[in-house]
Amino acid sequence: MRGPRPSPRLLGRRPSGMGHGGSGGTLADMLFGRDKQRMITPDEALPGRDHRVFRVPEMHTVLGTRLEPPFPEGFERLIVGMGCFWGAERMFWRTEGVHTTAVGYAGGFTPNPTYEEVCSGRTGHAEVVLVVFDPARVGYEELLRVFWEGHDPTQGMRQGNDVGTQYRSCIHVADEAQRKAAEATRAAYQRVLTAAGHGEITTEIVDSPEFWYAEDYHQQYLDKNPLGYCGIGGTGVSCPVGLTG
């Protein structure tokens, strides 16, 4: 099942079993020897543009709320990257207390990027999910539990067969309180991951950069295409939210 236009998803990722050894590289990558797991420098980035070149829908197809500001007063935001943003967004719109979600690009250098540009590895952006939530109904740490348990944060510049810097694990924090919560839950989760035989967490925790909304057909993709590709999955290890020591 597909949207109104063929998805370009396969330009940048392959479902399980496609590609040589799950490498996710394109023929051009192999011919020219470019490593999609290497973060580019600002000088290598595509120039982008000073305006958005596609439409973003006004309303969320599941929650019936606005995708772009203004949001209700007192509501807070979580922005995370955890691999393919299609499946990541669905995890959060299903979470009690979430007001709205949207997918986009952040953490790189190219202003107003397109999906094809992000897939090229030449923007530096990660695929991320914006989550607007009511803190009276769900806490930031509880949303971080969804994040940690919903993907494998030890894989570096990939999630499963999705390979490249756009699939890196990241948390973009809005203030010092969010940073402390992100760092505390990372430390707590590392302990239980290590006990279960997993490696070191590679998730980057950085001050929140500009969030660039993704194209219309990416927003709530798995609501529009219930049988669509979802390439993320967790480690099976529970995150002990609330343990800060």
Account of the protein in words:
The protein has 245 residues and is α+β, with helices and mostly antiparallel strands. It has a domain of 164 residues: 2-Layer Sandwich (Peptide Methionine Sulfoxide Reductase, Chain A). Helix content is 24%, strand content 16%. The protein has a six-stranded mixed beta sheet with strand order 7-6-1-3-2-8, with helices on one face. It has a two-stranded antiparallel ribbon with strand order 4-5. It is globular.
- CATH overall fold name of one domain: Peptide Methionine Sulfoxide Reductase, Chain A
Rg calculated over all Cα atoms: 17 Å
Order of helices and strands: HHEHEHEHEEEHEEH
Task: Outline the low-pLDDT stretches.
Answer: 1-25
Strand order of the largest sheet: 7-6-1-3-2-8
Report the count of strand segments. 8
CATH superfamily of one domain: Peptide methionine sulphoxide reductase MsrA
Number of contiguous helices:
7
In which range does the helix fraction lie?
10-25%
Brief summary of the model shown:
With 245 residues, the chain is an alpha+beta fold. The chain is 24% helix and 16% strand. It has a domain of 164 residues: 2-Layer Sandwich (Peptide Methionine Sulfoxide Reductase, Chain A).
